[in-house]
Design brief:
Blueprint (H helix, E strand, L loop, with lengths): L1 H12 L2 H13 L6 H13 L3 H10 L5 H13 L3 H12 L9
Helix pairs in contact: 1-2, 1-3, 3-4, 3-5, 4-5, 5-6
Length: 102
C-alpha cells in the first residue's frame, strides 16, 4: 500500500525520476507488478508522459484489471495517441484482455 501511495504522489507531482526509482526497486525485489500496484505504475508513467514505460508495464502484466486498461487507454489519449487508444479499447472490447469494458 505504501508503494501505491508514493507512486500516486509521484504521478500528481510529475516526479518521474522518483517513480522510476521505485519501479526499479520493485523489479529488483521481484515484486509482482499487477493489480493496484500495476495500475499505480501505469498512472504514474502516463501522467508523467513516459508512455514507453507505461507500455512496458502494461504489456508485462499477466493479470490486467479494468483500471489498468483504463489507465493505459487514458494515457495514450491524453498524450495525443488517439488511434492507439482506440485500438487498445477495441482489444479490450473484443475480449483480448482478461476483462471487458464496463
Amino acid at each position: 500500500m505504501t508503494f501505491i501511495s508514493v507512486l500516486g504522489a509521484c504521478a500528481e507531482t510529475g516526479a518521474l525520476e522518483m517513480g522510476s526509482k521505485i519501479h526499479e526497486s520493485l523489479k529488483a525485489c521481484e515484486h509482482k507488478i499487477e493489480g493496484y500496484l500495476g495500475n499505480a505504475l501505469l498512472n504514474m508513467y502516463s501522467k508523467c508522459g513516459n508512455l514507453s514505460s507505461a507500455w512496458e508495464v502494461f504489456r508485462g502484466m499477466k493479470i490486467k484489471t479494468t483500471s489498468c486498461w483504463n489507465a493505459m487507454i487514458f494515457g495514450l489519449a491524453v498524450h495525443g495517441y488517439c488511434e492507439e487508444a482506440l485500438t487498445l479499447f477495441s482489444e479490450m472490447e473484443c475480449g483480448l484482455g482478461t476483462v471487458r469494458p464496463n
